[in-house]
Amino acid sequence: MAPRALGPLAGLFLLLVAGVAMARDLTLAEAERMLLAHNRDLAAARRAVEAADAQLDIAAARPNPTVSLDTTSLSASPGIGPGALNQKRADTVLRIEQPFERGGKRELRIAAAGSLQQAARSDSLEAQRAVLAQLRSAYFELKLAQEKLAVLQESAELFTGTLRAAQRRLKAGDLAPAEVAKIQVDHERAQNEARAAGAELARARFALAFLIGAEAAAGALRAADPWPAPAGPGPGEVAAALAAAESRPDVAAARARVAAAEKLRDLALSQRTRDITLGAQVERYPGSVPVNSIGFGISFPLFTGNDFSGEIRRAEAERYAALDALERARAVAANDVRRAGSDLAAAADRLARYDGTLVAAAERSAQAAEFAFQRGATSVLEVLDARRTLRAVRMEALSARAEHAIALAAWQASRGPTQSAGEEK
Prior knowledge:
- Helix 2 (28-38) crosses helix 4 (105-171) and helix 4 (105-171) packs antiparallel against helix 7.
- It is built from 9 helices and 6 strands; from the N terminus they run H-E-H-H-E-E-H-H-E-H-H-E-E-H-H.
- The protein is elongated.
- The two termini are 62 Å apart.
- The protein is α+β, with helices and mostly antiparallel strands and 425 residues long.
- 66% of the residues lie in helices and 9% in strands.
């Protein structure tokens, strides 16, 4: 016997149950672990560190020797003579040459590459610091979108109830059609706002999923952590953060690049110290006396056309540019700390006022107006105004919570090397 088809209401119920079952509750600590494992920007930063490690090996390499084998003095007249190949009348020279660097060039290259390696590692930590701040912001933007949708759906349901009450009063002759039309307009607007909030939630999910490399599961992501408790920077915390900003990865990377630029400047100066090439050879020339002989040689450049002045000036300019970049990094770090501290203090103060009085007062006002309207004791305009005020206050409170959470993430990121949420105390 074939199973009976499900009715439309039963089918809708099963779809809702499936959607709930597919929801993916995600904590901030778990999101940070996924970010560290799957974020594309962090993967690129790790590749840059690997390249810097390889560059250190390249800098430490010594010049390779060269070997040459030359045969000369070959002539058609009187010819190369009879006998075995090693008895032919030909001048054969086997020569080996080894360049030797002077002026500490290899040591300077190693030191410069080591500083650039440290800069690459600091860049990787800086990328992690910045992306973690982006993740925390995206996480709480997702939570804002979730709760915004819930508030607007609840508001839409309340307007639906208000509309039904108005329609009953219209049938009883207790309310004019124009008043019902006003409620109908607000009801439709509430429905549209709820649909728009659903689209905003989808965008927030995609933004977070991209950061943690979970695009396939984006539609089911749900921020499960609670909002952070309202808290601003305590006394002395900004001063301590300013002192700790010197250890931020971006400042450390700039400082390492200054050290590298100084070594590269010294390396450019060392080009004026002549490198030498030592050579040794074995020569065989049958028919001469002696047949076999050895020889030695030395060669070095003459600085008649290039004394490396251009390279030295360029290296000096790059050193000054690195110093300027270091000062800029320090200024940016200090500015980030001050701005983040100020933003967090303002956000915590604003959130405290919403949590303290505003939301509760708006809810009491709306409940009283709704109760009075249900019994015909108040006008449509009064209940609509109370309902709009409650919705606006609740949305503003949600925005205040999100602003505080994002400001807290920026404050945590501004202070230097960051920890994951699971590691923070």
